[in-house]
Amino acid sequence: MNRETVIAEALGLLDEVGLDAVSTRRLAKRLGVEQPSLYWYFRTKKDLIAAMAEAAMAPHATAPLPAPGDDWRDWFLENTRSFRRTLLMRRDGARLHAGSTPTGDLDRLRHKMDFLVASGVPERDAQMAMLAAGRFTVGSVLEEQADTGSADGAELPADMPVIDHESAFEAGLALILNGLVRCTAPGSRTPR
């Protein structure tokens, strides 16, 4: 057993039972070890959850970084879509990620920010757009992963539209991008 095995098994447990049911007791049983042996790798459950969140983000964290010739608008859209896809890969992926700090991803974040600024996006606007897009994505995925339809047996009103989560996400993402594009227009002033 090693740290990577513990994290992989914890993520498997997450996918099976959901975030609320993940416990060090259940994880130890799954690994066939005594619960205190997990403390060799993680001092607290919070440390374990943070490691799980980082590992769950690996598909997005290893996506190609933008190159100087890339169109920043296309890159911004694809980067945000990649984040959404990654969150959706895991049961309760958005809840697992919410509140985590991207400590292992700081160089990638700097590269992304530098790319936006070099593409003509004002630095403060680039920061706020990345933050807004990230929080919008987490919130969208939280709602999507919590959507059980009418699983409680209640009938939805006939005039209530069915939510297409992907279309709603794309519409919100377009609004964020369009606002950012306006900030880059010549003569535009960003409200502070």
From TrEMBL:
Keywords: DNA-binding, Repressor, Transcription, Transcription regulation. SUPFAM superfamilies: Homeodomain-like, Tetracyclin repressor-like, C-terminal domain. The keyword Transport does not apply. The keyword Transcription applies. Pfam families: TetR_C_1, TetR_N. This is TetR/AcrR family transcriptional regulator C-terminal domain-containing protein. Residues 23-42 bind DNA. Signal peptide: none annotated. Residues 1-60 form the HTH tetR-type domain. It comes from Streptomyces luomodiensis. Gene3D superfamilies: Homeodomain-like, Tetracycline Repressor, domain 2.
